[in-house]
Fold this sequence. Notes:
Layout: H1 2-20, H2 27-35, H3 45-58, H4 60-63, H5 72-76, H6 95-104, H7 119-134
Helix pairs in contact: 2-6, 3-7, 6-7
Amino acid sequence: MLKPLLFAAAIVLFGIAASSAPVFMAQEAAQATASGAVNPVKPTAQSQARAKKIYGIDCAMCHGDNGDGKTDLARDMQLTLRDWTDPKALAAIPDQSLFAAIRNGKGKMPPEAEGRARDDEVWNLILYIRSMARQQPEAAPTPAAVPAGSN
Length: 151
């Protein structure tokens, strides 16, 4: 019962987001993407709190609260999403590619139109997403095997 309701709510949310603002890339973002620029923002506690809020509203329903991509909605939409808690998941993807995917949408993912988030907020969102891998506890090292009879 809950899955169809969440799915319907997501479809309505995507429809509202897509129709509420024009879909275009800001000139500044286009220049940053075209020039291969790295993320131009420096994170602050306030900017990362805002990024976390945006993520919770616009991204978490598919990508998961912790970024692992294992949500009922993603499964129902037959999406295989990257596990952002894995440091290798985004290691080879430059920030400008993530910016373009977020701003323009990709596949079934709707765009984060400028009316919903300014360019600096999208850049901070990228920093927040990348931080998800660092927030995971590291696996404890496996103890070396002790040969039998050495005690």
